[in-house]
Amino acid sequence: MGVCALDEHDLCIACRRSGIEIAEWGVMTNEQRRDVIKKIERRYQGEIC
């Protein structure tokens, strides 16, 4: 998509990253990115984390 839009939980409605995760994505290590991706998978299942 290329453009994130945050919902009332500060999560992107498309990629499900938080505002902080979006801002820090470019400086995260691969391990940190993998951790974020695991959180995103839980968010798609309905968890807010």
TrEMBL record:
Protein species of origin: Neptunomonas concharum
Pfam families, per the entry: DUF1289 (PF06945)
The name this protein goes by in its record: DUF1289 domain-containing protein
